[in-house]
């Protein structure tokens, strides 16, 4: 079991939008599940090109393993806005 962490969505200095932790989070704690469509690499490649042609500045393609990518660009949750920050 896990408790959902308190998060805030807002502008980020790292990459446009970001998701900010409003409480300390340990290295082994669940923060939020990354949600989107599960696609193969070839589909992700096509979508990435199409998103660029459509003027979508940021695509949210998260690699799970060699064959699986989660595309949260058009149907995802706030997890897609998580950026890395050492602080």
Automatic annotation (TrEMBL):
InterPro entries: Set1-like (IPR044570), SET_dom (IPR001214), SET_dom_sf (IPR046341)
Biological processes annotated in GO: methylation
SET domain mapped to chain residues: 5-87
SUPFAM superfamilies on file: SET domain (SSF82199)
Record-linked PROSITE patterns: SET
MF-aspect GO terms: histone H3K4 methyltransferase activity
Keyword Calcium recorded: no
Keywords attached to this entry: Chromatin regulator, Methyltransferase, Nucleus, S-adenosyl-L-methionine, Transferase
Localization of this protein: Nucleus
GO cellular component labels: Set1C/COMPASS complex
Pfam families: SET (PF00856)
Entry-linked PANTHER family: HISTONE-LYSINE N-METHYLTRANSFERASE SETD1, HISTONE-LYSINE N-METHYLTRANSFERASE SETD1A
Protein's UniProt name: SET1A methyltransferase
Source organism phylogeny: Eukaryota, Metazoa, Chordata, Craniata, Vertebrata
